[in-house]
Amino acid sequence: MRRAPATAKLNLALVVGPLRDDGRHEVATVLQRLDLADRIAVEPASKLRVEGFPDDTLVRRALEALGGSWEARIWKRIPVAAGLGGGSSDAATALRLANEALSEPLPPEKLQ
User: Fold this and answer.
1) What's this model's pTM, rounded to 2 decimal places?
2) Contact of 72 with 61, CB cutoff 8 Å
3) Exposed (0-12), middle (13-18) or buried (19+): which is 52, by Cβ within 10 Å?
4) What number of other Cβ atoms are within 10 A of residue 43's Cβ?
5) Span 46-104, pLDDT tens digits
């Protein structure tokens, strides 16, 4: 089982640019990583299962998008809905750990 911290982050600056042709905005941000972190563990499994945080949707969606079957465990320390990026950090960490477990991991640009 692969494990890693999923660190909280504090948004120090956010600039939203003009509307693009695709209906979205360019965004620039300055983030500061904090010492506070959730812990994520991921391993291949017979079916997709996420434990430890019943309201999770982001980790599940990230692993579904990667494909395959995974078991993920979340140990929450970052307060939910605190604006510290806990859910997105959990999803990114789970995705990175699962990708590392693949026989042919995706390159970073494809993983994004």
Assistant:
1) 0.87
2) no
3) middle
4) 14
5) 999 999 998 889 999 999 999 989 999 999 999 999 999 999 999 999 999 999 999 99
